[in-house]
Design brief:
Number of helices: 1
Distance between the termini: 8 Å
CATH architecture: 2-Layer Sandwich
CATH topology: Folate-binding fold
CATH class: Alpha Beta
Strand order of the largest sheet: 3-4-5-6-7
Radius of gyration: 15 Å
Number of strands: 7
Largest sheet: 5 strands, antiparallel
Helix content: under 10%
Order of helices and strands: EEEHEEEE
Strand content: 35-45%
């Protein structure tokens, strides 16, 4: 069984989570050009490797960031956006 660690609720079965997509820092809407905004909206790197991703824990309604290697599917840590607290992922 695959497990994922919610920073609020601890380690839970993967079936309790919903993948929310890759976390990407948006450019400043007030200063970016149309080309920069279009690149942010439409261009994504699909190359395997270390990614920051949004995940949602359905039972608790918690959105958080997971750092995961998409090639090995190993999660290295999970945390709430903007907080310094981190949770190390044990094993998959």
């Amino acid at each position: 069984m695959k497990l994922l660690t919610c920073p609020m609720n601890g380690t839970r079965p993967l079936s309790e989570f919903v993948f929310g997509g890759e976390y990407r820092q948006a450019p400043d809407q007030d200063t970016c050009t149309d080309a920069q905004w279009a690149a942010f909206v439409h261009n994504r790197s699909g190359a395997p490797g270390d990614k920051k991703e949004w995940w949602y824990h359905s039972p608790s309604g918690t959105w958080f960031i997971a750092e995961r290697n998409t090639l090995t599917d190993k999660v290295t840590r999970t945390y709430l956006l903007g907080q310094n607290n981190t949770t190390q992922e044990e094993g998959k």
